[in-house]
Amino acid sequence: MKNNIRYLLQLTFLILLIPSVIYSQNNSIGKLVKKTGYVKKTNINCDSDECAGDNLLIYPGDRIETGSKSSASILLNDGTAVELLEKSDLIILSIINKRDKTLTSFFSDYGKFKIIQENDFFDASLVIKTRTAIIKSVSASISIITGYEETGIFVYKGEAGFANIDPTIIEAYVIQSGYESFLKKSTPPLSPVKVQKTLRTSWIKRHFLTKDNERILRYNKTNGAADWFFIEKK
User: Fold this and answer.
1) In Å, how far from its chain's centre is CA 203?
2) C-beta separation of 206 from 221 below 8 A
3) What global pTM score does this model have?
4) pLDDT tens digits for 116-163?
5) Which of 22, 107, 113, 225 is most deeply packed, by most CB within 10 A?
6) CA quadruple 17, 18, 19, 22: dihedral positive or negative?
7) End-to-end Cα separation, the chain, in angstroms
8) How far is residue 113 CA from its own chain's centroid?
9) Do 115 and 204 contact (CB within 8 A), yes or no?
10) pLDDT per residue over 37-96, tens digit each?
11) Can you tell me whether residue 50 is helix, strand or coil?
12) What angle do CA 234, 204, 57 make, to 5 degrees?
């Protein structure tokens, strides 16, 4: 009986110890380097206080949310930098590990992101999934806007694969530098369109989500007065 009690106490201690081990600094995969306004960090794998860890360190499963007029910048250990603009939600699932054949992986329900990869990988090293799209890139600089019903991408440098998250939709594109594309739920991506050089640096600022986070709005500065339009939703 005493041995059983001792075993249970040891097991309980180990269970309580696990969160602090998992969320130790040695196991972090990046860092939150800048916060502006309301920025919330939680973890999808654990919601206890022990799993909070260092508020600036990033761990697998960390979820970053930004509020109105807020932003956050993340730098991962593989050289991937991510800027979350206002009203964005991003889950950092994993970081690339050649031994385990895992890639740096993100998921987003909604939001606006600028991602810059600085590494020497020659194959896909980053995969981003949304409710509607899957994006794979090698070493690229890309901007993404995504909502519940559609996703848009602009590749500033490098290239990225762009496809519907629905595996039955086989049409996909490799988006080259200077091109944009959009896709809606259950439809293939639109053919990539070249973005004027004068509008490339402002791409992410000219795209917005509707208040319900479903559709994408664009502000076309080339038309002088503000020209808002909905990308058609079937």
Assistant:
1) 17
2) yes
3) 0.81
4) 987 666 667 899 999 999 999 988 999 999 999 999 999 999 999 999
5) 113
6) positive
7) 67
8) 7
9) no
10) 999 999 988 766 655 555 889 999 999 999 999 999 999 999 899 999 999 999 999 998
11) helix
12) 110
